[in-house]
Design a protein that fits this description.
Distance between the termini: 28 Å
Number of domains: 2
CATH architecture of the largest domain: 3-Layer(aba) Sandwich
Radius of gyration: 19 Å
Structural class: alpha/beta
CATH class of the largest domain: Alpha Beta
Number of strands: 10
Length: about 240
């Protein structure tokens, strides 16, 4: 059974070559929302997550809400294994798919086809599964003959198509989503939105960070309101 458990999770992010508490310090604090622990030897430490305890079970579609810098994205990255917590533990049971940052993991000198295989490996797909679905991924991307060219020759829209088509393939147990996104021209946007909805409908667990109250209400049955790196409300009421 799919589940996510966080116990006493702390995430400290070092900021190097910073100056004393100044406008820059204030700006960093405003964007991260975390607490500045210390400033010495040109090193600043931001506490992005502070003693987070969460249990997310199969059937939960959790909406993370809160202002910029409240810890939503940091929490998603810790759950996804992108960040290792400074303290505490994270347990994830089930195949997890992080849809967090399009463009991360591509190798510009490799072809689109080779990058599909590369992304599959980076995101923990079984090699056989990638090979079975590679024709479907290429078809969905709409890149045609460009799939055999190096990604460095792609436009930004083509890169998004390649990433999106690769990451939304299959039916993972757990989907981690930082804002609802789509990519490409109008036709591809419509196609990608339908695929995203299918992915979310089939997921056993969804953790979704968004500033859109309507999307949170649409896709989520629980919400967690974040503030200064810590959940301050957990419930099922409307956001």
């Amino acid at each position: 059974m799919a589940c996510i458990k966080l116990k006493g999770v702390v995430l400290d992010i070092p900021i190097f070559d910073s100056v004393e508490r100044s406008l820059r310090t204030h700006t960093i604090n405003a964007f991260t929302g975390g607490k500045i622990l210390n400033t010495f030897n040109k090193k600043m430490i931001i506490r992005a997550l502070n003693e987070v305890n969460l249990d997310i079970h199969e059937g939960d579609a959790v909406g993370l809400v809160g202002p910029n810098g409240s810890g939503k994205s940091s929490l998603l990255r810790v759950i996804s294994g992108i960040y290792k917590p400074t303290a505490g533990s994270v347990s994830v049971i089930g195949e997890l798919r992080p849809l967090i940052s399009l463009g991360v993991g591509l190798e510009a000198n490799l072809t689109g086809m080779d990058n599909i295989r590369r992304l599959g490996a980076l995101y923990g797909y079984k090699r056989e599964a990638v090979e079975e679905q590679i024709d479907q991924i290429v078809s969905f991307s709409g890149l045609g003959d460009f799939i055999g060219l190096p990604v460095r020759s792609y436009s930004s829209g083509m890169v998004l198509r390649l990433m999106f088509a690769t990451l939304v393939t299959g039916n993972p147990d757990i989907v981690i989503l930082d804002e609802f996104f789509s990519a490409g021209d109008e036709d591809f946007v419509k196609k990608s939105e339908k695929r995203m909805e299918k992915l979310l409908d089939n997921a056993k667990i969804l953790v979704f960070a968004s500033h859109s109250k309507s999307l949170v209400k649409r896709y989520c049955n629980r919400f967690i309101r974040m503030d200064n790196g810590k959940p301050i409300e957990i419930g099922v009421e409307e956001v």
